[in-house]
């Protein structure tokens, strides 16, 4: 360890964690497989030095849950409020119509912002890879509508962009100047050109295990300005796997708790295939190695 052990402990912030997913309460595909271990998950992350989490809202119900989690763990968890592009179809199917859902989202965002529980508006954006979930016209219409709500209530943006960079940037750019705190595109897996355009727009970029999968991904991360990177796990997904290009950079990274199959769960263990915020240390470690800098520098930034 050398000098790292004697310096101050590393501190991380996980800017994208789906803690409202039932798997974090031991429920998989509607079946309770093991005890609810949410408190342990938070505890493990804190032991690893992860001091703040941003819990992602992806529709009205999930946003309510994110805010509930934020109020249960105040000072550690903060929520986002918004409707994910893959859920854009919910606007047209809402019992009171699209404007009613938009109003409900806005009210929740305003109240939670005031209470200090919601710190960003999202997850909103465009996803043209999964148009079977919500068609393009609905995605465009309700991304634009939600951007306007975010500007109105002055919350920074938590953004999703997949295979839609042109439309995404076209709708986003004119509104960014009205949002002094900007926003970030989370779970970035795009090209060098897309990364450079986002940096030029002035948004931050969220990097997780999915952003570090291939050699090309690693080149893009290497080129990202350090002060524009935010780190995330996006758990329960996006873990760093042995098959990923990033895994060769894990030598010397802090050890994670033992992981077991969900059926063999025991208290204190991670679950195989369920990514959790303690793994943020590995994301930071890989970014540092790829950029040839210390993990301290990554954490500071």
UniProtKB/TrEMBL annotation:
Record's keyword terms, sorted: Hydrolase, Metal-binding, Nuclease
GO (cellular component) term, any one: cytosol
UniProt binding sites for a divalent metal cation 1: 123, 234
PROSITE patterns for the chain: TATD_2 (PS01090)
UniProt-recorded name of the protein: Deoxyribonuclease tatD
Record family assignment: Belongs to the metallo-dependent hydrolases superfamily. TatD-type hydrolase family.
Residues that bind a divalent metal cation 2: 160, 186
Keyword Aminoacyl-tRNA synthetase assigned: no
UniProt source species: Aspergillus sclerotialis
One Pfam family of this chain: TatD_DNase
Gene Ontology molecular function: 3'-5'-DNA exonuclease activity; metal ion binding
Record has Membrane as a keyword: no
């Amino acid at each position: 360890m050398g000098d790292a052990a004697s310096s101050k402990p590393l501190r991380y912030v996980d800017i994208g964690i789906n803690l409202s997913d039932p798997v974090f309460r031991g429920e998989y595909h509607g079946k309770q497989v093991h005890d609810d271990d949410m408190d342990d998950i938070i505890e493990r992350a804190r032991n690893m030095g992860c001091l703040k989490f941003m819990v992602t809202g992806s529709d009205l119900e999930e946003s309510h849950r994110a805010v509930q989690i934020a109020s249960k763990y105040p000072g550690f968890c903060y929520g986002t409020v918004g409707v994910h592009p893959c859920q854009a179809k919910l606007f047209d199917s809402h019992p009171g119509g699209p404007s009613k859902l938009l109003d409900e989202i806005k009210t929740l965002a305003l109240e939670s912002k005031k209470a200090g529980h919601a710190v960003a508006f999202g997850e909103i954006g465009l996803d043209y890879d999964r148009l079977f979930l919500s068609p393009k016209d609905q995605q465009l219409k309700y991304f634009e509508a939600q951007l306007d709500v975010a500007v109105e209530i002055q919350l920074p943006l938590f953004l999703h962009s997949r295979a839609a960079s042109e439309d995404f940037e076209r709708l986003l750019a004119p509104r960014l100047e009205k949002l002094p705190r900007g926003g970030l595109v989370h779970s970035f897996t795009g090209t060098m050109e897309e990364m450079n355009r986002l940096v030029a727009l002035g948004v931050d970029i969220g990097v997780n295990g999915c952003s570090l999968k291939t050699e090309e991904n690693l080149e893009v991360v290497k080129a990202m300005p350090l002060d524009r990177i935010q780190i995330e796990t996006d758990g329960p997904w996006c873990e760093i796997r042995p098959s990923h290009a990033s895994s060769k950079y894990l030598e010397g990274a802090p050890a994670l708790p033992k992981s077991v199959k969900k059926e063999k769960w025991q208290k204190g263990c991670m679950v195989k295939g369920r990514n959790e915020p303690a793994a943020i240390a590995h994301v930071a470690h890989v970014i540092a190695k790829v950029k040839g800098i210390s993990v301290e520098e990554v954490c500071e930034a």
